[in-house]
Amino acid sequence: MRTKVTKAIFPVAGLGTRFLPATKSVPKEIMTLVDRPLVQYAIDEARAAGIKEFIFITSRGKGALEDYFDYAPQLEAELRRKGKEDLLEILKSTNMDSGEVAYMRQHKPLGLGHAVWCARRLISNEPFAVILPDDVIAAEKPCLAQMVEAFEETQGNIVAAMEVPDSMTSSYGILDIKEDMGSIVSTKGMVEKPAAGTAPSNLAVIGRYILTPTVLQKLNRKQAGAGGEIQLTDAIDAAREDGEEVYGFRFQGQRFDCGSKAGFLQATVAFALARDDLRDELWNYISDVVHSEKAAQ
């Protein structure tokens, strides 16, 4: 019997120190790309893939993130009174029904693997997705929906993957390829942040996963890996060593690393240019800046 993926874990406990001072009081996950928080892009992607239960791994200071998904009766009443039905429709996409969302605390920053492990009692014995909101992916068909289709075919662990320059492999989990079948790649190993010049390929894991319960069992060992943290990559590879298949999935779309300032700005520009109501004015501004710089040179 083929199992559906209906639960997703969102690790959002990080302090977002690269975005200080903004993140002193505002969780990074609700910083906006144009007019939507990072986490909203992740939620919309999960919903499009058939996810029904949303599990957030949070930490102290993330109250504003929880409030974001709550109903806002006073705001809704005011918009309704003013006849702003378009804005009311936008608000509906931000609301999470009772029982649809759960919040778990990660009390110590022990790594991505530990964050996923914190959700173990809510996952039980079923496959689940992991989405890192820092990785925003612009795609005609949402990335996780593409991966769900691949999971229905393979029923194995699947990680989203993309080629990166050799100089960047030490910043990622890297796949050791067994067989390259195009969009799906079978693996014979995974290496977390390999030393320069030692990476088995340049196919890097990015922030989308569909995993089996065996991975949670491996995380129970709480074994520290690269950087002294409990690495999700290590648990996935341990499941492979026990006989489970692990696949890399080359998704169709453009990934933005919104955990970095440059990536966040790039995503902001890209998403703004994709909107009819913003494109012309923004493009004219960019063109004026470029022309001014050229003239100054």
What do these coordinates show?
The structure is a single chain. The protein has 297 residues and is an alpha/beta fold. 35% of the residues lie in helices and 24% in strands. The chain contains 11 helices and 13 strands. Strands 8-11-9-10-12 form a 5-stranded mixed barrel. A two-stranded antiparallel ribbon has the order 2-3. The chain has a two-stranded antiparallel ribbon with strand order 7-13. The termini are far apart. The model has no long low-confidence stretch (mean pLDDT 89).
SSE layout:
Layout: E1 7-11, E2 32-33, E3 36-37, H1 38-48, E4 53-58, H2 63-68, H3 73-81, H4 85-92, E5 101-105, H5 112-117, H6 120-123, E6 128-131, E7 135-138, H7 143-154, E8 157-163, E9 173-180, E10 184-192, E11 203-211, H8 213-219, H9 232-241, E12 246-250, E13 254-257, H10 261-273, H11 279-296
Parallel strand pairs: 1-4, 1-6, 4-5, 8-12
Antiparallel strand pairs: 2-3, 6-11, 7-13, 8-11, 9-10, 9-11, 10-12
Helix pairs in contact: 8-9
Helix amount: 25-40%
How would a crystallographer describe the biggest sheet?
5 strands, mixed, barrel
Q: What string gives the helices and strands in order?
A: EEEHEHHHEHHEEHEEEEHHEEHH
Beta strand count: 13
- Indicate the mean pLDDT: 89
Overall shape:
globular
Which structural class should the secondary elements be placed in? alpha/beta
